[in-house]
Amino acid sequence: MIARARGAGWRHQILPLGIAAVGLLVSTPAFAQTAEAKVDSGGMMIGLKLEPGVAFPLSAPQTDNFGVGGAGMAKLGLGVHPLIDLQATAGILGFGGKNTPTVKGELVSVTFLGAGARIQKPHTDNSLSPWVDADVGFVQTGDLSRFGYAVGGGLQFPLGDKAAYWLGPFVRFLQVTSGDKPNVNADDAKIVIAGLTLEIELTGRGPKDTDGDGVPDTIDKCPTKAGPKETQGCPDTDLDGLPDHEDKCPTEPGPKENQGCPGGDSDGDGVPDKEDRCPTIPGPKENKGCPDSDGDSVNDADDQCPNVKGEPDNKGCPKYKQVTVKESKIEIAQKIFFAFNQATILPKSFDILDEVAQALKDASKLRVRIEGHTDAVGAVEHNLALSEARAAAVREYLIGQGLTPDRLESKGYGPTLPLESNATAEGRERNRRVEFVILNK
Prior knowledge:
By secondary structure, the protein is of the alpha+beta class.
């Protein structure tokens, strides 16, 4: 079954012979690259596996005629899938014959050439990598060439961080068919090989990993920034399990329900309650968690004009000379004057109305009702009509200053809503007025 080679003096050199055979195989130009020659191969990996080992015959008559032998194999693998390599295999085994009438101490060599596939845990991190493989091919013993197959398995450990070299134990079973030639034992030869496997990555294995964090680009949510697997390849500076781009407090660890911020966050604005000046009302971090509706950098709680963009040193109100925008109304520092018993606005009131128009332009979302009022002198019907006309005149003036009509209403109340008694001149003077009431508070 196994052809014999002359030279019993080789029997003590069988294991070195196997190791030397591996060296011979890898010295050819096809294997001349090193692991330093890594290139991006579009997700495919090319690797070289070297397997020096010890061979044990299992079947008769090999167990009767031969002792323990040496073996050396080399496998060139091409990764076609993160878990699967196709491989070409070349190997040589040597056995020293026993002093029996059949072999008389002669050395026997076995050569194997084949191809197959390997299933292996991807080398995307530096953890233990188990594998199994199978090959079919031709076995040459002496002048006999026959069919054979081999199956094996093992474990590999990385040599260094982000290693291109992997080392570990293996065991392999080789079966050589008997064939149908005369004077050849009819039983298949069975051999077990055990030893160490060294894998050298000639190109990168598996999917592309641009940032080198061990998470393939195909599943890496941050493919250009290194991060742990737990956060799908995204950086997590405070190590709280929430990636920085989703973490409202990326430098302070906190639970996910608090958006990565420490302690409670009652309003969910990303500012912890202990730092939030308005813990029950959402607001931006730059305002310490307090809202700022008009965006003037004065928190609504401190802003006397929360709906109008103003100046921080003016308590959030615009610096108008005669106008103050409050929550419910626009207050003016002096009255609007009209011609006696008419709806004609006097020129001395133009400046203050211009300022009202500017305030409404600055607070572009406000809608206002212009209300006209009179004293109680004269007929009620006349005073109602006069107040309506004066309110409408003010509305038209403001429209003329560039305000859109849909933001302005006008209504006359006549003497029905006095501020003071109409029994005195001072009271009647105060009751004759125009007011600006904010409608969308």
